[in-house]
Amino acid sequence: MKRKLQELLKSLLIVALAANALFLAYKSEVFSEFLSESKLAGYFKKGELSSSQSGISADGNDYKVAARPIVMAVMGDVGTRYAAKYDDGQLSSLYERTANIVGEALGSARLPQSCSENEWRNALARPGIYWDYKVEMPISILIRWLGMSTINENDDYADRFVTVINEQNGVDVYYANSEGYYKCDTAAAADSIGVVMQEFLPNGAYFAFESEEVKDMVEPYTIIVPELADKYLVESVNIIENKRVKEQAAEMLGISLLGGTSYSEKNGTMVYVGVNGIMRVSADGRLSYSVSDYDYADAKDASAIDEGKVIEDAYRLVTDLRSAYTGAEDVYFSGIEKTENGVTAVNFGYYIGGAAVVQNRGKAATVVYDNERMISIDIWMRGYTLTDEKATMLPELQAAAIAGGLENDGSLSLVYYDDGSETIAPAWVVE
Hints:
Helix content is 23%, strand content 33%. With 431 residues, it is an alpha+beta fold. Strands 13, 14, 15, 16, 17, 18, 19, 20, 21, 23 and 25 form an eleven-stranded mixed sheet that branches. Strands 4-3-6-7-8-9-5 form a seven-stranded antiparallel sheet. A three-stranded antiparallel sheet has the order 22-12-24, with no helix packed on it.
């Protein structure tokens, strides 16, 4: 993990210098140690469901949408593209317009069949809708987030999806993950895709593999958008310094800031002792909570958990803890892992207009579960506000050319690197 972050930041620095962008060299910092041992029955506070990130699934259960695609495209019938990336307004508009279409296709999909990469590429040339989450999502949970039920249960994970009109005027769904490419026949209707194609005019976007100019420079399924919207510098703040945010977070975790036991550690971290656990708040914005007297040796088999439930509950907890602050950032699910202790860690990241916020501290938030019981949380309580100052950046095509000189077939992304400075700038990185 540390090595991967260091390599990413090194690539970021090289690209930024080549672009003469307003970006400083990163400071090397060791990741924080994880939380102390702990135990708790769990935190599953329902709270208020926001209209854009919540709803009722087809089975009548409420759900919390923990992520949205951060690259999207509508593909025309003559190879034209309209793509949205690094722009909240465009992404939201395209998501709202296509979510039901993709949800209907995934919900009605038959069991997946493995297909070749060539078939996948051919699908990308057909009329349809393309989504990329940049992290592999549980497909069964994604269907629920789209408000649909499923005919055939699919336990696969995938990060890229394409819903296309086939030669018989039906609809097929293809998806990709780290293991390969898959195709599903569906019962969805093609008419709705055709309507969307008429609503979003081409903006010159294309996949890297379709261009002789960049096909060997970056990862082939990178979507290049010739003219991205202007990007701005961002102010970064430590939101736990806000009294209201701190009080709300403490209340949700069952901690009394005034009447309970508290003390300060040598490094300035404040420690608050509650009935069920301990909350720590560091000067640089890290909030951690661990339940009392938990023994990792007693952890149950993590393979038996309902991953969708813990992802949604973890997302609800993270967003509730910081809901007293509203900024330019979104909190998105960024991965789930089973640890060597037999517990499950659910990770989240901050995004600004679809661009990931990279921190030298590690992940934005991690919630740890034993079976389906939350036992600890670690969250960097950061907030971000867009300024009026435009960032100096290379066009994506030129950044791709530089990326090709650094690492052939690398993944080119726009990120905000938060090193603790008050003002941070977007920059291209190669992973």
